[in-house]
Amino acid sequence: MFYKRNHGPVPVLEDISLYRLEVGGLASNRCSLSMDAIKQLPKHTVVATIQCAGNRRTAMSMTRKVKGVGWGLAALGNGIWSGARLSDVLEIVGIPKYSRVSAYGGKHVEFVSVDKCKEENGGPYKGSIPLFQATNPEADVILAYEMNGEELSRDHGFPLRVVVPGVLGARSVKWLRNINIIAEECQGFFMQKDYKMFPPSVDWDNVNWGSRRPLMDFPVQCAICSPEDGSYLDGKGKVTVKGYALSGGGRGIERVDVSADGGKTWTEAKLAQGPKSGLGYIPDDDDHRDKWAWVLWEASIEVHLPADIVAKAVDTSANVQAEHVETIWNLRGVLNNSWHRIHINGTSKQLHSNL
């Protein structure tokens, strides 16, 4: 179960033997790589969560209407991605690791897709990241050809996609065709006229797209997955609340706080990561922590129904979620990381006794 998002029809590659990845631009060399050649490079695996910038957009739109796909809280997914490091591929064209600028003045790496979209006037989807991020092996940017131990499916980018951990999903370009070393960030629609963060005072009448940078790292985020908003429970007592938490840029989750009284008092949740970690355990050392992956959490709290349950996360840099969605409202409904709130009802019998 992994969300799917694309801005044009899913492309079909009939003959994998004809596929070539073209790498060039402001670099010393150019290269054209077949899938066989890419798979000859050292294989690297990273566990990473990819999240759409519009995750939880519907809740923001309930405050004030926004434009965009009406995502709930599931426009994200955690996967095991395998492929070649982007830094290894860039070395082939003469760009060393940890480079901030190429010998010919390149400062950004542009990814160009096979798929066509109307926003680009029928041209390909594209995006970019800074050269230093692309050439830094610790950033774990890979050209992935496997997902969860299997060949990429068409929906997820077959035969090759970029995975940029810790960055909003729009930069993890699928169906990769070209990699270009460029002097300035990509000038494509989804870098320059979308996926930018504006204050609540900006609307479609006064928006100036050139006044904001393209969004990259996503902020600290968490959501309640169980129980569901509007659920009915019997009586009062302990309720187990579960959900996910994550933060961009390789920042881990320090803690998740859960409240059963709308935020007056809090209980710290237990955290888990990885299939064998066991609830309540995350390795303290970075070598064994999946810094790009979500954290699953669980808390047992005392509730008196009906109740408003709230969850908020704090990352390892002490970044916290916004308390109210109104303070981060923006016209595209992106990056809604406000406290997640659900309402739990009592059963009809419980409601009658309360009356």
UniProtKB/TrEMBL annotation:
Residues 7-189 form the Oxidoreductase molybdopterin-binding domain. One of its GO terms (cellular component) is mitochondrion. It is an enzyme of class 1 (oxidoreductase). Its cofactor is Mo-molybdopterin. Pathway: Energy metabolism; sulfur metabolism; Sulfur metabolism. Transmembrane segments: none annotated. Residues 214-345 form the Moybdenum cofactor oxidoreductase dimerisation domain. GO terms for molecular function: heme binding; molybdenum ion binding; molybdopterin cofactor binding; sulfite oxidase activity. Keywords: Metal-binding, Molybdenum, Oxidoreductase. Its EC number is 1.8.3.1. It comes from the Eukaryota. One of its GO terms (biological process) is sulfur compound metabolic process. PANTHER family: SULFITE OXIDASE, MITOCHONDRIAL, SULFITE REDUCTASE. This is Sulfite oxidase. It comes from Ceratopteris richardii.
